[in-house]
Write a structure and sequence with these properties.
This protein has a 3-stranded mixed beta sheet with strand order 1-2-3. It has 5 helices and 3 strands; from the N terminus they run αβαααββα. About 35% of the residues lie in helices and about 10% in strands. The mean pLDDT is about 90. Helix 3 crosses helix 4. The termini are far apart. It is α+β, with helices and mostly antiparallel strands. One of its GO terms (cellular component) is membrane. One of its GO terms (molecular function) is acyltransferase activity, transferring groups other than amino-acyl groups. It holds the Pfam family Chal_sti_synt_C.
Length: about 150
């Protein structure tokens, strides 16, 4: 926090160009970002200095289910489980946004081994994700549903 405060003050005085951002990957293995839209996911990735792979569960949930409000966080968590990415001891940071200035987050720690074969919302088509390429969402969704 001290590094952030110092860099914030230095930025105001023109000494430094940008405010210090901690490396959140040291604290969390996985991120579930509110799937309210592509711009939201990309914006959070940019501000927290995350890679595209960190937002994969969010983008895939947005692609498959659309903007389903804060419940998207649970679909993202199930995506990580279905892809066998959750391991015992892993920490997940869920970041949710509401209307106006509402925001919330939760941190979860995996306390047991996850069986990726357990049925969940992704079980029927997990092998089709992530979807790659620049084709339109409607075209890709049609291909997946057929």
């Amino acid at each position: 926090m001290l590094k952030y405060i110092i860099s914030f003050i230095q930025r105001k005085w023109g000494i430094q160009k940008e405010v210090y951002t901690p490396n959140f990957k040291k604290a969390f293995e996985h991120f579930c970002i509110h799937a309210g839209g592509r711009a939201i996911i990309e914006g959070v990735e940019k501000l927290l200095k995350l890679g595209k792979e960190d937002g994969e569960a969010s983008r895939t949930t947005l692609y498959r289910y659309g903007n389903i409000s804060s419940s998207s966080l649970w679909y993202e968590l199930q995506y990580l489980e279905a892809k066998a990415r959750m391991k015992k001891g892993d920490r997940v940071w869920q970041i949710g946004f509401g209307s106006g200035f509402k925001a919330n987050s939760a941190v979860w720690k995996c306390i047991s081994e996850i069986n990726s074969k357990d049925p969940n919302a992704w079980s029927d088509r997990i092998h089709l994700y992530p979807v790659c390429g620049d084709a339109s969402s409607a075209t890709l969704r049609t291909k997946l549903l057929s």
